[in-house]
Amino acid sequence: MSDQPERWTEATVYPDMWMDPDDDPRDNEGPAPDGELPTLRDAITNYRLTLRLKCQGLDAEQLARRSVPPSTMSLLGLVRHLASVERDWHNWITDGEPLPKLYGARDADFDGAVADQAVVDAAFADLEREQAALDATLARHADDLGRRLGREHLAVREVLVHMIDEYARHCGHADLLRECVDGRVGQ
User: Fold this and answer.
1) 38-47, 73-82, 104-113, 134-143: least confident range
2) Bridge partners of 148?
3) Residue 11 contacts residue 19 (beta carbons within 8 Å)
4) What are the helix (H) ranges across the chain?
5) Torsion angle, CA of 7/10/11/17, rounded to 10 degrees?
6) What pLDDT does 96 receive?
7) What is the helix (H) or strand (E) element at residue 105, kind and residue range?
């Protein structure tokens, strides 16, 4: 008997995929979007969906499980962290008073990721709200990807590329965390 979960996937077409292509909500079929802005938006949208997919079907304990000790990283911690990142970027590109840190002190996004359904629900609500706020601000300035915004004078393009980078890195973590939780693997 092993403590390691058995590897599995829902895919029937390609055994290394998360799900069959026809069931995948990400836009991975057909031609890529034309133009720089649609390409950047498509990438961030797909990474955001990937994070949600990696969390799908897990209960609060599984989402909060720190699968690779001594790390405090968990799927729930990643959701909370990315909500914080979305808020930070939004704060940096606005001129008004910045909103407070979402979860307080450094690493509180991971440390506070506990196995409580209310914490899970709040984390996903935070993520959705912060994504919408950042997207709305960027959309108002999408006519010029080189336009510099906010106190930090960051270009719209720079923000989008950094967000893609952040999600890509953490979706890689989510792949490994999910496999440790229940053995589910895939793209």
Assistant:
1) 104-113
2) 155
3) yes
4) 36-55, 60-64, 75-92, 108-111, 117-139, 156-182
5) -60
6) 87
7) none
Which of 1-5, 69-73, 103-107 has the highest mean predicted lDDT (pLDDT)?
Answer: 69-73
Sort strands 154-155 and 148-149 into parallel, antiparallel or unpaired.
antiparallel
Beta strands per DSSP E along 1-95: none
CA distance 111 to 109: 6
- Identify the CA nearest to 181 among candidates 45, 61, 38: 61
Q: How remote is the C-alpha of 92 from its chain's centroid?
A: 19
| Nearest partner of 64 among 184, 177, 187, judged by Cα | 177
| Overall size of the chain counted in residues | 187
Q: What is the helix (H) or strand (E) element at residue 154, kind and residue range? A: strand 154-155
Quote the CA–CA distance of 54 and 57 in Å, as a whole number: 9
Report the distance separating Cα 177 and Cα 66, nearest Å.
8
Domains of the chain: 21-27+36-182 (1.20.120.450)
As a whole number, mean pLDDT of residues 50-62 equals 96
Structural contact between residues 119 and 103, judged by C-beta atoms closer than 8 angstroms: no
- Tokens 């990283």 belong to 73
Which whole-number Å values give the CA distances from 33 to 15, 126, 170, in the listed order?
Answer: 28, 29, 24
